[in-house]
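Much of what follows relies on a compact textual record of a protein's fold. An example makes this concrete, so a full record is given next.
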Amino acid sequence: MKKKKKKMSKRKYVLSFFIIVAVLALVRIIFPSVAGDRFSDQKVGKEAGAKDNGADVDSLGNNKRAQANIVAEKGVDFFNADGSEAEHPLKGVWSYKDCAPDSNASHLVAAKQFGVVPVQNIADAEKRKHELVYIGANPYYKVRKLQASIPYLVPRAAALLQDISRNFLDSLAVKHIPLQKLVVTSVLRSKEDVVKLGKHNKNVSPNSCHVYGTTFDISYTHFEPLEAKVDDDRYKKTLSEVLRDMRDQNRCYVKYELHQACYHVTVR
């Protein structure tokens, strides 16, 4: 009886196996896409390798190239076309002042075009939150404790600041420089703030762009470390490259401020 039971169980096992195989074969015939091209990358890589005398075009290379294409589409060139890491030497700009020369008049034209009606005071600013974006907390930059402005910008300017800050971090990464965030030192000012600042700051214009919510200042001497705290001119040079590129793309007007050690930026 025991032998018969063993034979029966064995037959059931074999029969079940063949049934499963038959069902899978039938599914594959009816739905050929189920099988997929699971090993197509490896196959193509091997065939191409044979044709190219052993060139590195296996599945890993294909994945790297795909990654490079995706990154290139986003406008960030971390990799070369062959998947190798791209080199990004730090060059800076030939002159900080001459590469950020836009006058207050140029800034003011853009501020009036894209900004809000000038803010009179803090109470007035609080009523304008439906026109402005809060920028006080952001993972890409730090807003310093503000003494004579409030952390709001029009949406267009907030998007510009976000892009500048992300491009800055991307540039540090590809140059293998320890990561530090940008520090924003001034944002939206009320007219009352402008009057107070004008008493001890010669750079403050009575017709300041900051009252329109289109303008912000970025320090080129202070940065917020994400890794090691490093004090050298690589950060200022990298920031100058990023702002030059943004200015060349007609995204903003930029002025290099000497006394305040900051870049004065207005969205376009």
Notes: DSSP finds eight helices and seven strands in the chain. Residues 2-6, 34-75 have pLDDT under 50 and may be disordered. The domain at 104-267 is CATH 3.30.1380 (Muramoyl-pentapeptide Carboxypeptidase; domain 2).
